[in-house]
Amino acid sequence: MPRLLPTIQERLLRLKGLLSQLGTARGTDRVKAELSSQRAEDLAEGMARMEPEDAAALLQAMDPIQAGNVMVELPTDTAREIVDELSDEVLASYLDALPMDDAIDLAEEVGDERFESLLEVIPAEDAAEIRRLMAYPEDSVGRLMTERYFWAKPDMTIKQILADLRKAGEEKYEQVNDIYVVDDAHQLLGVTSLRRVLRVPQSTEVAEIMRVDPVTVHATDDEESAARTMARYGFYALPVLDESGKLVGIFTGDDAQTILREAETEDVLAVGGVTGDAEPYYALNPWSLYKRRFPWLIALFVAETLTGAVMRHYGKDTEVGVPPLMFFLPLILGAGGNSGAQVTTTITRALALDEVKTGDWLAVMGKEFVVALMIGASLGLLGFARAFFGWSTGMGLSLVVGLALPVVVLWATTIGSILPIGAKRLGFDPAVMSAPFITTFVDATGLIIYFEIARRLLG
Amino acid sequence: MPRLLPTIQERLLRLKGLLSQLGTARGTDRVKAELSSQRAEDLAEGMARMEPEDAAALLQAMDPIQAGNVMVELPTDTAREIVDELSDEVLASYLDALPMDDAIDLAEEVGDERFESLLEVIPAEDAAEIRRLMAYPEDSVGRLMTERYFWAKPDMTIKQILADLRKAGEEKYEQVNDIYVVDDAHQLLGVTSLRRVLRVPQSTEVAEIMRVDPVTVHATDDEESAARTMARYGFYALPVLDESGKLVGIFTGDDAQTILREAETEDVLAVGGVTGDAEPYYALNPWSLYKRRFPWLIALFVAETLTGAVMRHYGKDTEVGVPPLMFFLPLILGAGGNSGAQVTTTITRALALDEVKTGDWLAVMGKEFVVALMIGASLGLLGFARAFFGWSTGMGLSLVVGLALPVVVLWATTIGSILPIGAKRLGFDPAVMSAPFITTFVDATGLIIYFEIARRLLG
Asked: What is the model's pLDDT at position A4?
């Protein structure tokens, strides 16, 4: 039964089909059944591409546990829009159904005030646990840990442990592969595995089979470094201690995987000069993409003032002799190189994470064209203003700069978006179309654009 | 018991202390005990910084299971050197002790021929399993999977399953958290978890509690995409099928974590123009670093020929008018920007992975200085040759180019290595000192260097 992952388009079509069946009682039952057989991650991917009201309708056809899980997997912006479509009652039911560490995720999407009012509605014990976790600093392990782990006293026998596990409800523990041994003050003494427990005689006390020097993290540790510690040792969960060494929770591998994936995405994008939280490419509209790229290009603008000043300085120096047209060369090349690097880094990452398929090339280029127009227009205006007003360059050359910038940015963007997709299509690793490759490629062509515009306008 | 991770330096000192105690029978026993309490990942990190013969001596003081695990964690180049110090008999004992999927890792380090002769020595069944896995394509899941998983027929009861698990030797299964249900042809029917098994009555048949639509991967799938699938769904293992849907192994989370970490490192470095396999920074000598960076800089050189040609073309065009000194501007700026971006990307990644601490700044700068000398000298010679012989530029300007290139590269490297470490020291995210930041910063200062050299030599 080889299982082919459907494309995002296929998933979307299937969800839209389901949507149209909602409304009649029989249709709704059928939709419910179909939805319940699907995974939250897959549903979230399709729903991120639907209208918020449609996604909200589908969400309400699911049972609250599944709906909550889908909410957690949705890109933040999408989830925010959908949340606006849902009543407090519905949201509270999702919140209640989620594991506490995931429930916290909803706070960001729902907004602090509304989240606070939802906490009033859910059982007091759950609300208290959520508030406890939320008291830890942002991006700390404390916010991501779960208090639902299995712990034992050192003199408990395997027989007792197995009996306890058997009795526990499905939701009581988030994972039971590791068993944490604590003393009366809940200080962590050691860890053992369920696998080991199963293999020793039932009368064994757990202290005899525990490992006494476990790798631990602290509740206030940075989540990324804790996730790296887990990955380093190949563990699937780590015990979380407070300042005094008391066990306060466990940090599980599924959260660590998400943290690392997002941190890696942010690191890769940063190298390409793109800022912002990791969000899937398909969930970002041109305005979001603009906001992630423009800060860096503005910083570049300021920095290239320095370069321009150097050029002007040596321009006056007759021994070296730099003509005014050359003053703007680093700015033009920098704008083209950097905007191209941003696009190619973004697309290459989206391809690596399967957020974009090669078949999506036309949609990608269309979206990137809009972003390039916005960035090009902004840079062109800024460039013209600085040349004309700032450096008192003549109108002619100022116009050349103001026109060359958007054209070079559009060109760099086109190259930067099509080359990685083309490379993947041809079976190469898109990473070979790296940012420096694009930058260098755009250098030569950017020069031609600049000089040609100059020749026509100044000639 | 808050546990502070020791620095690499502390680890190294401790290992050297242990080394000096080897030799006497009592000393060796003490060292053995001390080593056995440490984790393979930590030992490998320290040993990668020792002389190969010292590392080999420590390795031989460990029991074969631990020694094998340490070997697998060592950087490839280090492992290759250590392997040369070890006898076939010792190596075979490591190979025999390792899980089969890890044993394959040794093939790369030992060399094909010697590995083949080692396979003759270990038990035939293990050798056959290793040969089976090695028949799968490089970088495929098949090479990383383990055949040691727990499977059951659909009509097996929970009681039988638990009895089987209890009887199994420690090494028989790599993990038992997931239980795979197969039919008589070993086609995968479904999956259930040990946790679920523990919670149902002992007379239940496993088919009643299995999930019938598990996420699977194929043995020939790319390892990175399989690891991403696992991370996407937050699983800790995935069943691996052959073309016909037969279960042939499982792909476990510890391997997936390693694959992803290395793939992410390679992706980040590629954006910065650095090629090659992921290896820890401390295991790379200047020559290795040179080899990872020079290919890209050479590609840049070729590409900037295009830019230079454009400049020369418009230089003859009297309306635009580009003086010869300007022809080399993109090359100088590109060389500085790109070599700076390579260094800052490398160091930022090493900081993120904790392979370099801020306290290592002097060692890092020393190593980078050597690399920069090598790269600068190579580029300077190439630049001079191209200017003088290729473009028949006069001796004066050719010398300016040949001198400016190494100076700019040295400067860019210094900035590129110190800024991320400084940022981290001051409590900022080193990623803000991103490649484009360095590139832009180096642009202005690179210009000054170029113009000053020109003024002195040509003035």
From this structure: 46
Sorted by sequence, the CB contacts under 8 Å of residue B6 that are 6+ apart come out as B14
In the A/B pair of chains, how many CB contacts fall below 8 A?
Answer: 272
Share of chain A above pLDDT 70, in %: 97
In a domain, B352, yes or no: yes
Between A230 and A19, the more confident residue is A230
Q: Please, which pLDDT band fits residue B174 given cuts at 50, 70 and 90? A: confident
Q: Which two tokens stand for residue B375?
A: 């790269």
**What CA–CA distance (Å, rounded) separates B43 from A248?**
29
**Residue A349: count of CB within 10 angstroms of its CB:** 25
Q: How many domains does chain B have?
A: 3
CATH number of the domain enclosing B372: 1.10.357.20
- DSSP letter, residue A367: H
CA dist A429 and B378 (Å) reads: 28
CA gap A236, B13 in Å, rounded: 30
In a domain, A258, yes or no: no
Report the phi/psi class of residue A209: left, alpha or beta, with left for phi > 0 and alpha for psi in -120 to 50.
Answer: alpha
Residues of B in contact with A330 (CB under 8 A): 333, 443-444, 447
Of A231, A307, A443, which is closest to B307 when you measure between CB atoms? A443
Query: Measured between alpha carbons, how far is B415 from B435 in angstroms, rounded to an integer?
Result: 11
Q: What is the mean pLDDT of residues A229-235?
A: 91
Give, as one character, the DSSP assignment of residue B182: E
Radius of gyration of chain B (CA): 28
Query: Where does a domain end: A220, A252, A284?
Result: A252
Contact A444, A371 (CB under 8 A): no
Please state the rounded mean pLDDT for residues B282-310. 87
pTM, rounded to two decimals: 0.87
- What backbone phi and psi angles, to 5 degrees, belong to A268? -60, -45
Name which of A205, A99, A78, A92 is nearest A152 in CA terms: A205
* Most confident region among A93-97, A125-129, A394-398, B401-405 by mean pLDDT: B401-405
Dihedral of alpha carbons B83, B86, B92, B93, sign:
negative
The sheet carrying B149-152 orders its strands as B149-152, B175-182, B188-193
Chain A hits for B215, CB-CB cut-off 8 Å, are: 3, 39
Task: Check whether residue A129 and residue A156 sit in a common domain.
Answer: no
- Dihedrals φ, ψ of B284, to 5°? -105, 125
Residue A131 to chain B, least CA–CA distance (Å): 25
Tokens representing B131 are 């040969």
Considering the domain boundaries, does residue A143 fall inside one? no
Q: Which residues of B touch A225 (CB under 8 A)?
A: 354
